[in-house]
Amino acid sequence: MYLSYMALTLGVALIFGNGWIIALLVPAAALIHWGVVRREEHYLRAKFEEDFRFYKLEVNRWF
Asked: Which residues touch 48 (CB under 8 Å, ≥6 apart)?
């Protein structure tokens, strides 16, 4: 979900030739990774414990 959001944003930036959007995409990706994804993983690990550990073995974080 987050990866597709970033790809869509990059596509829009390239279509409109807006360098600012491209430049801000890197900090936005970092914010999403540490501010959202890591917090979600912490929550899921606390809620689902062993099931989430097995899920993480099967599913990559971003791809």
From this structure: 55
The crossing angle, in degrees rounded to 10, of helices 50-58 and 38-48 is 130
Query: Measured between alpha carbons, how far is 32 from 26 in angstroms, rounded to an integer?
Result: 10
pLDDT in tens, the chain (63 residues): 899 999 999 999 999 999 999 999 999 999 999 999 999 999 999 999 999 999 999 998 887
Which two tokens mark 18? Answer: 């807006």
The pLDDT of residue 61: 86
Q: How far apart are CA 37 and CA 45, in angstroms?
A: 12
- Residue whose structure tokens are 């360098």: 19
33: left (phi over 0), alpha (psi -120 to 50) or beta: alpha
